[in-house]
């Protein structure tokens, strides 16, 4: 793969990038560049790819018999005024993780809200949930114990 400075993120096929490579890309990019990427037209494509892979990185043995709905709200700070946040829901139940690419009428046990750059850092193993929470870059509403253990339910790549 090209050096990060030469990488054309807008044209990158994120579906063809392995999780470990994605983690390396996110780690090597300055926050400003990640924010630019996630403020552009490829934002939803990147988010869809990340959420679309969650079921493949899910560790059912770690989740046990837990049944939980998690709502993720990825904020649009920096995007055009009036733009809507992106909302996804993950449902963990019966040893599976299913993703809905929108808000439903169901009541989540946990809601997580963060800007897109922080979300990419979190899911790529380049940031920790507690650090984001304590620096007020991650808002948690609901089951705080579930929030604290959520990263153990997924095989998060090591950058």
TrEMBL record:
Residues 93-148 form the SCP2 domain. It holds the Pfam family SCP2. Coiled coil: none annotated. InterPro entries: SCP2_sterol-bd_dom, SCP2_sterol-bd_dom_sf. This is SCP-2 sterol transfer family protein. The lineage of its organism: Bacteria, Bacillati, Actinomycetota, Actinomycetes, Kitasatosporales.
């Amino acid at each position: 793969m090209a050096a990060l400075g030469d990488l054309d993120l807008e044209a990158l096929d994120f579906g063809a990038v392995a999780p470990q490579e994605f983690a390396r890309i996110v780690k090597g990019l300055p926050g400003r560049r990640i924010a630019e990427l996630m403020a552009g037209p490829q934002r939803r494509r990147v988010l869809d790819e990340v959420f679309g892979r969650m079921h493949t990185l899910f560790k059912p043995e770690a989740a046990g018999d837990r049944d939980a709905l998690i709502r993720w709200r990825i904020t649009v700070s920096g995007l055009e005024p009036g733009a809507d946040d992106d909302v996804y829901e993950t449902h963990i139940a019966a040893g599976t993780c299913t993703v809905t690419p929108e808000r439903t009428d169901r009541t989540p046990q946990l809601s997580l809200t963060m800007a897109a750059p922080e979300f990419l850092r979190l899911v790529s193993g380049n940031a920790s949930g507690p650090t984001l929470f304590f620096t007020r870059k991650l808002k948690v509403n609901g089951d705080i114990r579930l929030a604290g253990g959520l990263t153990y339910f997924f095989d998060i790549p090591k950058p």
